[in-house]
Amino acid sequence: MHVSTPPFSPYTKDNPLAAKLLENRVLNKDGSSKDTRHLVIDIAGSGLTYKVGDSLGIFPSNRPQLVEELIELLGATGNEPVLPARMSAAISLREALTTKVSLAGPTKKILETLAAKTTDTKEKEQLAALLAPEAKEALELFLGQREYLDLLEEFPGAKLTPQEFVDHLRRLMPRLYSIASSPKMFPGQVHLTVAPVRYESNGRRRYGVCSTFLSDRVTRRKTPVPVFVAESHFGLPADLARDVIMIGPGTGIAPFRAFVQERIATNAPGRNWLFFGDQHAATDYLYGDEWKKLLAEGRVARVDLAFSRDQAKKVYVQDRMREAAAELWAWIKGGAHFYVCGDAHRMAKDVDLALHEIITQHGGMEPAAAADYVKQMKKDKRYQRDVY
Asked: b/e per residue, 60-97, with b = 16+ CB within 10 A?
């Protein structure tokens, strides 16, 4: 029997594929305060392969408007040659600011340079106060609310050359997004679930670099999107008969859409149980029609939903876990794999706490024994997290 092997792909982080965007669809319904996109990237014929659980790395470009404002504030034309860090050949200032360097996250170092270069007495005093040893907290707060653009505007008395400015900027790094599709179900495509980041600070509108690059600035089928596959530890059990429990609120739903597609494509006999949460059921049930259909067809055994703003008391996925504690423990005791994807700062911690409580209570264990049980689950790769 001839076994076909996937074609070799030359595309890596150092040599990304110039892919095209096929689809950009808003997943939230009218009236939602949120904006979440379903994006489809075309990788057909490239030889680029992935498995469910992997992430897609994307190299974004900075907003053209922001780049032009910086060039103007530097009193430059944009054509000046500059050499960003770790590059062997000079490129134009405009190209460097667009694709090579990060324009956010200024550091103390730029303030020290501005203090040394400014000819304005008031600016010198303000910068000296911020750089004083006792002003650590004030400095952190000041920098946290600003991007490099703000600093050039606030301290016009300091004239930096394009190279001096670029020397302060870190490399523009790729962003990783959990893949929301199975290659078995969507060959030649990668699906992503992306929430464009937009907010205000210091009286100015801010934009997430990569999320708004994908959602607002990439023209379908035209703009090249430089991509590569980042392999992940996050993946389905090798034993297809194992049950899987998936906790994925918000954009954390992405890999679990891929997981379930893969389970269907491989005829996995194990059961699938999803916990999903967001703000409102009517507007924020991401891929809701798909989940309803899968549930009706018996492809997913159970979907537990937590819409935090639909009632007076906020309800989250960890609350739904506690409500289903007895059955959750029965699945875990029976060998189920437990997965969490999404916000690392609060959700993942709250879910972990709920898991420990459920094992303590329903497993009849002391807290220390439950903690050991969870540690063993992690060791056996039965408890995996993809958190950010």
From this structure: bbbbeebbeebbebbebebebebebeeeeeebbbbbbb
